[in-house]
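<instruction>
Derive structure tokens from the sequence
<data>
Labelled lines for chain and fold
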Amino acid sequence: MLRYLFSPYGRTNRRGFWLFIGIYIAVTALSMLGDREFGFYNAELDTGLLEGLVSIVFLWPSIAVSVRRLHDLGYSGWWLLWVMLISIVLLIGLGVLTATLGFVDFETFLDADGQVNTDAIPAAVWGILAVSAAPYLIQMFMLAFVGGQEGENRFDRHAGGGARARGEDTQPWNE
């Protein structure tokens, strides 16, 4: 099971991906409840200690499962990084462009206390956020709903031979 959580090699089907997502959501929800119950919740940051620890603990397994899911679709795991970089470049580029052209005055977002006033955020900013999130959302849709390649693909083996090449089961819940 630990190899399944931490190894980026091999493939993960939709069922395995959704199983991981379900476990992640359940553990995150329990940590949020625990933060509020035990007084670890910080209203100013809108997060808690347990929730932060869960995020750190699940960071690498989330990456590993997503990479293996991309392998199942026939894509390199590097696509996870490229899509994130594209989203960041779009966010920064569109933000600078709209500010430079004068479409948005970012100083108007702050109220008298220096806090962000979400009511003052114009539609242009929401559009920037939507466009920059689109590549990431498309990738998440693919990971969650698109079927994997039938049979073996180039990601079934890696240096030293993959789990499938050695005849091992890569899905821990299969008999």
User: Anything to note?
Assistant: The helical segments are 2-6, 14-38, 49-73, 78-100, 123-145. The mean pLDDT is 83.
